[in-house]
Amino acid sequence: MENASNALLMAAGTLIGVLILTLFAYLYSSFSTEAKRNYETITQSQITEYNAQYNVYEGRNDLSIYEVVSMISRAREHNEKYKDNSLYDSDYKVVVSVDGKDEANVKGNVNSLTKINTFLENASNNQFSQTYKCNLITYHDNSGMVYEVKIVKN
Questions:
Q1: Where are the domains of the chain?
Q2: By CB count within 10 A, which of 10, 23, 26, 91 is most buried?
Q3: What is the pTM of this model?
Protein backbone atom coordinates (compact mmCIF):
# COMPACT_ATOMS: atom_id res chain seq x y z
CA MET A 1 0.00 0.00 0.00
CA GLU A 2 2.82 2.31 0.85
CA ASN A 3 4.45 1.76 -2.58
CA ALA A 4 1.16 2.57 -4.34
CA SER A 5 0.89 5.80 -2.32
CA ASN A 6 4.45 6.80 -3.28
CA ALA A 7 3.75 5.95 -6.93
CA LEU A 8 0.66 8.19 -6.90
CA LEU A 9 2.63 11.04 -5.34
CA MET A 10 5.36 10.67 -7.98
CA ALA A 11 2.78 10.61 -10.79
CA ALA A 12 1.05 13.70 -9.37
CA GLY A 13 4.40 15.52 -9.10
CA THR A 14 5.26 14.62 -12.68
CA LEU A 15 1.83 15.74 -13.89
CA ILE A 16 2.12 19.07 -12.05
CA GLY A 17 5.63 19.55 -13.51
CA VAL A 18 4.36 18.90 -17.03
CA LEU A 19 1.48 21.34 -16.48
CA ILE A 20 3.88 24.04 -15.25
CA LEU A 21 6.20 23.51 -18.23
CA THR A 22 3.21 23.69 -20.60
CA LEU A 23 2.07 26.91 -18.95
CA PHE A 24 5.55 28.45 -19.35
CA ALA A 25 5.70 27.38 -23.01
CA TYR A 26 2.26 28.91 -23.66
CA LEU A 27 3.18 32.19 -21.91
CA TYR A 28 6.49 32.41 -23.77
CA SER A 29 4.77 31.82 -27.09
CA SER A 30 2.05 34.32 -26.30
CA PHE A 31 4.45 37.04 -25.13
CA SER A 32 6.86 36.54 -28.02
CA THR A 33 4.01 36.79 -30.54
CA GLU A 34 2.82 40.01 -28.90
CA ALA A 35 6.35 41.41 -28.83
CA LYS A 36 6.82 40.56 -32.51
CA ARG A 37 3.53 42.25 -33.38
CA ASN A 38 4.56 45.37 -31.45
CA TYR A 39 7.95 45.41 -33.19
CA GLU A 40 6.30 45.12 -36.62
CA THR A 41 3.92 47.97 -35.74
CA ILE A 42 6.80 50.18 -34.65
CA THR A 43 8.80 49.29 -37.76
CA GLN A 44 5.83 50.01 -40.03
CA SER A 45 5.23 53.38 -38.38
CA GLN A 46 8.93 54.26 -38.83
CA ILE A 47 8.72 53.37 -42.53
CA THR A 48 5.57 55.45 -42.91
CA GLU A 49 7.25 58.37 -41.17
CA TYR A 50 10.33 58.02 -43.39
CA ASN A 51 8.26 57.79 -46.59
CA ALA A 52 6.27 60.88 -45.59
CA GLN A 53 9.43 62.94 -46.13
CA TYR A 54 9.11 62.18 -49.86
CA ASN A 55 5.35 61.66 -50.20
CA VAL A 56 4.68 65.36 -49.53
CA TYR A 57 6.15 66.07 -52.98
CA GLU A 58 4.13 63.46 -54.89
CA GLY A 59 2.03 64.96 -57.67
CA ARG A 60 3.23 68.50 -57.05
CA ASN A 61 4.23 70.52 -60.08
CA ASP A 62 5.44 73.63 -58.26
CA LEU A 63 8.63 72.35 -56.64
CA SER A 64 11.38 74.93 -56.30
CA ILE A 65 15.06 74.19 -56.87
CA TYR A 66 15.53 74.38 -53.10
CA GLU A 67 12.94 71.66 -52.44
CA VAL A 68 14.59 69.45 -55.05
CA VAL A 69 18.03 70.02 -53.50
CA SER A 70 16.59 69.30 -50.05
CA MET A 71 15.17 66.00 -51.34
CA ILE A 72 18.48 65.08 -53.00
CA SER A 73 20.40 65.92 -49.83
CA ARG A 74 18.06 63.84 -47.68
CA ALA A 75 18.38 60.87 -50.06
CA ARG A 76 22.16 61.17 -50.22
CA GLU A 77 22.42 61.19 -46.41
CA HIS A 78 20.20 58.10 -46.26
CA ASN A 79 22.21 56.34 -48.99
CA GLU A 80 25.48 57.23 -47.29
CA LYS A 81 24.19 55.73 -44.04
CA TYR A 82 23.16 52.40 -45.63
CA LYS A 83 25.55 52.01 -48.59
CA ASP A 84 27.62 49.30 -46.85
CA ASN A 85 24.55 47.28 -45.82
CA SER A 86 24.22 43.99 -47.68
CA LEU A 87 20.55 44.83 -48.42
CA TYR A 88 21.37 48.33 -49.72
CA ASP A 89 20.19 47.82 -53.31
CA SER A 90 17.11 45.74 -52.48
CA ASP A 91 15.82 47.55 -49.36
CA TYR A 92 17.47 50.91 -48.66
CA LYS A 93 18.73 52.70 -51.77
CA VAL A 94 16.91 55.93 -52.67
CA VAL A 95 17.13 57.28 -56.20
CA VAL A 96 16.15 60.89 -56.84
CA SER A 97 16.21 61.25 -60.60
CA VAL A 98 15.96 64.72 -62.05
CA ASP A 99 15.27 64.57 -65.78
CA GLY A 100 16.46 60.94 -65.77
CA LYS A 101 19.75 61.45 -63.89
CA ASP A 102 20.24 59.96 -60.40
CA GLU A 103 21.36 62.89 -58.26
CA ALA A 104 21.39 60.93 -54.98
CA ASN A 105 23.98 58.32 -55.98
CA VAL A 106 26.68 57.93 -53.32
CA LYS A 107 28.85 55.38 -55.09
CA GLY A 108 32.23 56.77 -56.04
CA ASN A 109 34.31 59.48 -54.40
CA VAL A 110 32.23 62.56 -55.18
CA ASN A 111 31.72 64.76 -52.13
CA SER A 112 28.02 65.34 -51.31
CA LEU A 113 28.34 69.12 -51.24
CA THR A 114 30.23 69.12 -54.54
CA LYS A 115 27.53 66.96 -56.12
CA ILE A 116 24.74 69.27 -54.93
CA ASN A 117 26.63 72.38 -56.06
CA THR A 118 27.15 70.80 -59.49
CA PHE A 119 23.46 69.99 -59.66
CA LEU A 120 22.55 73.57 -58.75
CA GLU A 121 24.87 74.93 -61.43
CA ASN A 122 23.73 72.54 -64.15
CA ALA A 123 20.03 72.38 -63.33
CA SER A 124 19.26 75.99 -62.77
CA ASN A 125 21.71 77.87 -64.98
CA ASN A 126 21.05 80.72 -62.55
CA GLN A 127 17.30 80.52 -63.24
CA PHE A 128 16.04 79.93 -59.72
CA SER A 129 12.47 80.56 -60.80
CA GLN A 130 12.46 77.21 -62.65
CA THR A 131 9.86 74.83 -61.18
CA TYR A 132 9.87 71.06 -61.12
CA LYS A 133 7.26 68.33 -61.03
CA CYS A 134 7.36 65.13 -59.00
CA ASN A 135 6.06 62.57 -61.49
CA LEU A 136 6.35 59.31 -59.62
CA ILE A 137 7.40 57.75 -56.34
CA THR A 138 8.12 54.02 -56.25
CA TYR A 139 8.84 51.79 -53.25
CA HIS A 140 11.11 48.83 -52.49
CA ASP A 141 9.19 45.56 -52.65
CA ASN A 142 10.98 44.09 -49.61
CA SER A 143 11.08 46.98 -47.15
CA GLY A 144 8.27 49.24 -48.36
CA MET A 145 10.60 52.24 -48.18
CA VAL A 146 10.85 54.84 -50.95
CA TYR A 147 12.99 53.59 -53.81
CA GLU A 148 12.76 56.25 -56.49
CA VAL A 149 11.47 59.78 -56.82
CA LYS A 150 11.20 60.98 -60.42
CA ILE A 151 11.37 64.71 -60.96
CA VAL A 152 11.18 66.63 -64.23
CA LYS A 153 11.46 70.27 -65.14
CA ASN A 154 8.18 72.01 -65.93
A1: 1-55, 59-153
A2: 91
A3: 0.65
